[in-house]
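Morning, I've got a small favour to ask if you have a moment. I'm working through a protein record and want to make sense of it properly. The fold is given in discrete form, as structure tokens running alongside the sequence. Can you walk me through what the tokens say about the fold? Thanks so much in advance, here it is:
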Amino acid sequence: MVEIAAGESHYSEVELGNEHLGDACRDVLRPFVPCFRRFVWSENDQALLGLLDLLDILEPEREKLRDIAQSIADRRPANTRLGDRARELTAEG
């Protein structure tokens, strides 16, 4: 899902007139952001990394993203992929 949300239109889609396919995919996913936020309590680091990446792309309310990232950072040590990614997002202004 992260790859779909982060994606851009393939050149073959652009040739068919679908140059905004990536934007359309994000528009379809964005209403589900409140549902995605519920995964914050997962204990699976890979799922949490995906959640942070997905919300970084889709979450229009950056303060909510920082709050989620902070709650993950509070539960994960620094010097890990997840801990570092969460701290990176909490530091964004």
Notes: Residues 73 and 86 are 5 Å apart (CA to CA). Helices lie at 2-6, 11-15, 21-29, 33-37, 45-58, 62-73, 81-91.
